[in-house]
Every structure is written in structure tokens, then in C-alpha cells.
Write a structure and sequence with these properties.
The protein has about 290 residues and is α/β, with parallel strands linked by helices. Strands 1, 2, 3, 4, 5, 6, 7 and 8 form an eight-stranded mixed beta sheet that branches. Strand 4, helix 5 and strand 5 form a beta-alpha-beta unit.
Length: about 290
């Protein structure tokens, strides 16, 4: 059993067993992959027999896409949520994806996989559940299970999923999220008054300290302004996401129930305006595990 302090530090900012969170993650997953330009970096093309892992896979959207697109490789997803893993397994069964595998596993604990198990390890938005102290140990675990010459890729964002918008209410909510993350020791914000989570500048050094070589960074941007393809999906994402994040923000003491309710109503009014503009920025960084001598 984990100690109580460990449980607090490892707590995800949303309810991981929530059906609403599952639906939100599925939409966010598809939007994220599109904004990243595809499932893998441009230089990487999986070959027959390779093994790929998705860390904190949620309802399994990325795993299922990879398994469908590359039927000759083996794709694994791990997550701490029983609900997410059950759903992912069911969906893989419906789609007859015999090369997709899911397992309930906590990445903050020693992983059950042997050394040198995977050719590509993918981890997106771990800042939502890792404390700043846990990052180095988790990265060491991910490098351990990566094959020599294999790739570890991290993707994360400093401004929740909102980015920069024309909405004053969303700007305020995003600041609350950053401050709450700082108080919960998530991310690497500079102070308790930080307006961002501070994770993206750290991705490359975290990979480097874990032993990866040849580190590359790639920025991404998702325009979800009024009239864009991503607009309606992100509006739905925010309506669910900020309700789910409310208990975390209240627990961290960065706002009040009344203020949250007011901002929640106001952001919807502002976002439904034809003049609404929003771009979400996030960053991927990846590195290679050294070849054995």
C-alpha cells in the first residue's frame, strides 16, 4: 500500500473513474493527436514486430489508433484507473484490435515490464498527476523499459488545456489551475502566484537527466477560435473539464465556490461569442536510450 503522503502527491486533478472525464479525454486525445500532426514524430515509422507503450493511456484512444494504423506491431496502454482500462479493453475488442493490450498499472511504482521491453514509449500530460519530486524516478523507469536505441517521448502543456484566449474568465481559471498545481507540488511553477505550470521548459532536462541522448523538442499549437474545426469540441471539453477541476481548485484554496460558479458561467458566454479567439500551446520532447556498448 502507498503511504498517505504519496497518495496526495500522486492524486490526479480530476476524478479518474468519472464517465464524464472519460468522454472528455477521448475528445482531447483526438484533438491533441491532430495538433501534433499524427501519432508519431515525422522521422519515426514503426516496423513489423515493434512494441509500443502509452503511459497513462486513459480510455485508450492513442493506443487504439496506433494499433489500427499499424496492425503488425504490439501496442500497450497502462493507467491507474480501473474504469479507463475496462473501457479501453472493451473498445479494442469491439474494433477487433488483437494487437492492443491494456493493463492497470501505476507509473509512480516500479513497473512490471522487464528491462528493454519497448521500442517507443509515449507519455502525454503527466503533469496532471505527478508531483515535481516524482518526475525523475518515473523517467528512469520509462528509460529502463525502453530498448537500447528506442525513443521516450513526453508531451505536456503549461496552461492546462486552455492556452491563450480572448476570454477573461478562462484566463482567470487558467491562473487558478496553475496556482493550484503549484500548491499541490505539480509542475515546476516559479511561485505560488505563477500563471503557468512551468513543465514544458523542464521536459528536455528531465529526459537528459534520465540518460536519454539526442533530445529534440517540437512545439504544437491548436487553434480553437470560433469557426475552427476544434471550436465546438473544445467548448464541450471546457464545460466538462472546469466542473471536474472545481473540487481540486477549492481544495487547494485558490478560489471560492461562488467565484468558480461565476467564472464558469462567464467563460461560456465569452466563448460562445463569434469574436472568441483561443490557441492552445503545448510541447513534445523526445530522446533516445543509448545503445549498449
Amino acid at each position: 500500500m502507498m503511504s498517505q503522503p504519496h497518495q496526495i502527491h500522486n492524486q490526479y486533478v480530476f476524478d479518474v473513474e468519472s464517465g464524464a472525464e472519460m468522454a472528455r479525454l477521448l475528445d482531447q486525445d483526438h484533438m491533441t493527436t491532430r495538433a501534433m500532426g499524427g501519432l508519431f514524430p515525422d522521422f519515426y515509422e514503426p516496423t513489423d514486430g515493434q512494441r509500443v507503450l502509452d503511459v497513462a493511456c486513459g480510455p485508450g484512444g492513442w493506443v487504439q489508433q496506433v494499433a489500427f494504423t499499424y496492425p503488425t506491431i504490439e501496442v500497450h496502454g497502462i493507467d491507474t484507473s480501473h474504469t479507463m482500462i475496462e473501457y479501453a479493453q472493451a473498445q479494442a475488442g469491439v474494433q477487433r484490435l488483437k494487437n492492443a493490450y491494456f493493463e492497470k498499472m501505476d507509473v509512480t511504482q516500479p513497473l512490471k515490464f522487464p528491462d528493454d521491453s519497448f521500442d517507443f514509449v509515449n507519455a502525454r500530460f503527466m503533469v496532471g498527476f505527478l508531483s515535481r519530486e516524482q518526475w525523475p524516478e518515473v523517467l528512469q523507469q520509462l528509460v529502463r523499459i525502453t530498448k537500447p536505441g528506442g525513443i521516450v517521448r513526453l508531451t505536456d502543456s503549461d496552461v492546462a488545456a486552455t492556452g491563450i484566449t480572448s476570454s477573461r474568465a478562462l484566463e482567470r481559471l487558467t491562473t487558478f489551475a496553475a496556482q493550484a498545481c503549484y500548491r499541490a507540488r505539480k509542475g515546476f511553477g516559479a511561485s505560488r502566484d505563477s500563471s503557468n505550470i512551468g513543465i514544458t521548459p523542464m521536459l528536455s532536462i528531465l529526459l537528459q537527466n534520465a540518460g536519454c541522448l539526442g533530445i529534440i523538442e517540437q512545439p504544437h499549437a491548436l487553434n480553437y477560435s470560433a469557426g475552427t474545426t476544434a471550436y465546438h469540441a473544445n467548448y464541450s471539453n471546457f464545460r466538462t473539464g472546469w466542473l471536474l477541476m472545481k473540487p481540486f481548485l477549492l481544495k487547494m484554496g485558490v478560489t471560492t465556490n461562488e467565484e468558480m460558479d461565476e467564472l464558469y458561467e462567464q467563460f461560456q458566454i465569452e466563448m460562445l461569442s463569434e469574436e472568441f479567439r483561443g490557441i492552445w500551446y503545448f510541447l513534445s520532447a523526445w530522446g533516445q536510450k543509448p545503445e549498449k556498448e
